[in-house]
Design goal:
The structure holds 2 protein chains of 2 kinds. Chain A is mainly alpha-helical. Chain A is built from 6 helices and no strands. Chain B contains 6 helices and no strands. In chain B, α2 packs across α3 and α5 packs across α6. Chain B starts with 5 loop residues before the first helix and ends with a helix. The chains are: A mainly alpha, B mainly alpha.
């Protein structure tokens, strides 16, 4: 029971840090993300600094934390095991790329921006959830 | 060069990396937003509360800063593009097993070849899409 509560508190806490980081980085603003993706326009390289900062912490984390044998609050690590580079991976990523380029929102920043109460953000997240539900319906949910 | 903000970007990136490390250390999972949210829609797995708590934190953490610092959130696309884009992002990230966080950060940090291919694909296609919508049509 205690560990169940701790797991939820840990999730809330790491979600808070993630959301704060997205807002501080400026990535909750789709106009800024488009500014990075628009390499032929008035290019804004900020997103590369966000990825760089995040990887600076995440690379050593993934290098050393799995050596612990188990995470602090769970019996074992549950990390993705798939290895195949297949059509769903590439096709799905391409569809995602089209949507990302059209609006400038990917899932994290879109959800993090819900707190602004802006109608276009809610419209995007509602359509995104519908797309996810459609996938679960057509192909099942395996992750 | 646009509204280039390298310091905010880098500091925000460090925080995002810290969150990725916390999820791995405490819960033993990949901090992929599309996976966490997609799993919420099935309500089948026993970890719905964990996922909901993470999503609540994501909204509150951003809200705290956005309201205090008056950072703009500007969606430039018209409504039909917003809806089409949302559908494509939702369906595509589930089909491709991840998004910018799951593949782009966690997968790259794990040196996963799948994630490297996915990341190159969605960045490349998104850049092409922006090029076509902004400079061609």
């Amino acid at each position: 029971m205690a560990s169940k509560v701790l797991r939820v508190v840990a999730a809330l806490g790491s979600g808070l840090v993630f959301g704060l980081g997205l807002a501080v980085s400026g990535m909750t603003n789709p106009a800024k993300v488009i500014g990075f993706l628009d390499v032929a326009g008035d290019w804004d390289p900020t997103l590369a600094f966000v990825m760089g900062g995040a990887l600076l912490v995440a690379v050593p984390a993934y290098r050393f934390i799995p050596k612990r044998g188990r995470p602090v609050l769970e019996a074992e690590f549950s990390l993705p095991k798939k290895k195949a580079i297949d059509a769903p991976l590439v096709g799905g990523s391409a569809l995602f790329g089209v949507g990302w380029g059209l609006v400038g929102f990917c899932p994290g920043p879109a959800i993090a921006a819900l707190g602004t109460g802006l109608l276009p953000v809610f419209a995007f997240v509602a359509a995104m959830l519908a797309g996810m539900a459609l996938h679960n319906r057509l192909r099942g949910s395996d992750s | 060069m646009g509204d280039f903000s390298p310091v905010g970007g880098f500091v925000g990136g460090l925080l995002i990396g810290l969150a990725v490390a916390l999820v791995l250390l405490l819960n033993g999972r990949v901090a992929g937003i599309s996976g966490i949210v997609g799993g919420l829609l099935t309500l089948r797995t026993g970890d719905t509360i964990w996922r909901a708590a993470f999503v609540a934190g994501l909204v509150l953490g951003a809200l705290g800063y956005l309201s205090a610092a008056d950072v703009p959130v500007r969606v430039l696309a018209p409504l039909p593009a917003i809806l089409a884009g949302g559908l494509l992002v939702g369906f595509g990230t589930r089909l491709g097993s991840g998004c910018t966080s799951g593949h782009g950060l966690c997968g790259m940090a794990r040196l996963s070849r799948r994630s490297m291919v996915a990341t190159a694909t969605f960045f490349g296609v998104a850049m092409l899409t922006v090029f076509l919508t902004r400079h061609v049509f």
